[in-house]
Write a structure and sequence with these properties.
single chain; alpha/beta; Rossmann fold; five-stranded parallel β-sheet; 56% helix; elongated; PIN-like domain-containing protein; PIN7
């Protein structure tokens, strides 16, 4: 079984003592590399005294513009070549910084050497998403919104077609006797309700949903805009997401 070592590279100028939060829980397979300059805030001695079973290595670098960042980035490449490639031990690196500029370096090494590397704002914190991950997530959200818009557009077209068909059917049925028309409509509604019960039961819908849909269909059976009315009633009762899912199961039947 391979040993997994985790290296924490801390940009102390950027995160200060807050970046060490959770270090007291680290194991002996964890190594902390602290990068600081003369301009860095005072280091909390309690952290130096209690960083769990981990090993703490400090790197004092020259004072200058983005000096700690540049030296940390340089050491990151050295560490990957020395410890994370071609070794029996498995390697994981976590950059502790709020600076999003490290995200480009992280994406580069992930693609170049398939290194397990991420950025957190503190040792115990959750992994911060890189710009590439955020962009991918945003793209998925746009796709979801586009799909919803397409569904709504399709529903509108179906409703319009249904209205036209209802008008045409109404005109064709005007020659029938009123009594016969009522009998035929009731028989058709009852048959439709039975079909809907089977469809919704097969889809695993709760009995309450089946009863509500069946009642709603019966209530709007004689309405020329019944599809639209049924759709609105279901959405109003169960919300956009759940309601649309229910309606999609019955729309071909009503």
């Amino acid at each position: 079984m391979k040993i997994i070592k985790t290296y924490y590279l801390i940009d102390y100028e950027n995160v200060g003592s807050e970046g060490f939060k959770g270090c007291e829980k680290l194991r002996e397979t964890d190594i902390i590399h602290l990068f600081y300059t003369d301009n860095s805030r005072k280091i909390d001695l309690d952290i130096i005294n209690d960083h769990g079973e981990s090993k703490l290595i400090t790197h004092k670098v020259p004072t200058g513009n983005q000096s700690a960042d540049m030296h940390l980035g340089s050491y990151l490449g050295y560490l990957i070549g020395k410890e994370c490639t071609g070794q029996d031990e498995e390697c994981k690196i976590v950059v502790i910084s709020k600076d999003t500029g490290f995200d480009h370096i992280i994406e580069f090494w992930k693609a170049e050497e398939n290194v397990k590397i991420s950025r957190n704002e503190k040792i115990s914190g959750k992994q911060v998403q890189t710009r590439k991950q955020v962009k991918k997530q945003t793209s998925k959200e746009k796709d979801r919104q586009l799909a919803e818009q397409t569904d709504q557009k399709t529903e509108k077209q179906l409703n319009e077609q249904s209205e036209k068909q209802s008008v045409k059917q109404s005109e064709n049925q005007n020659t029938k006797k009123p009594k016969q028309k009522i009998i035929d409509m009731k028989a058709g509604t009852k048959k439709l309700q039975q079909e809907l019960v089977l469809v919704l039961d097969k889809a695993g819908m709760p009995k309450e949903v089946v009863n509500y849909v069946s009642t709603t269909v019966e209530k709007n059976a004689e309405d020329k805009n019944r599809k639209q009315q049924i759709y609105r009633s279901i959405i109003s009762k169960y919300g956009q997401t759940k309601g649309l899912n229910i309606y999609n199961h019955i729309k071909k039947k009503i």
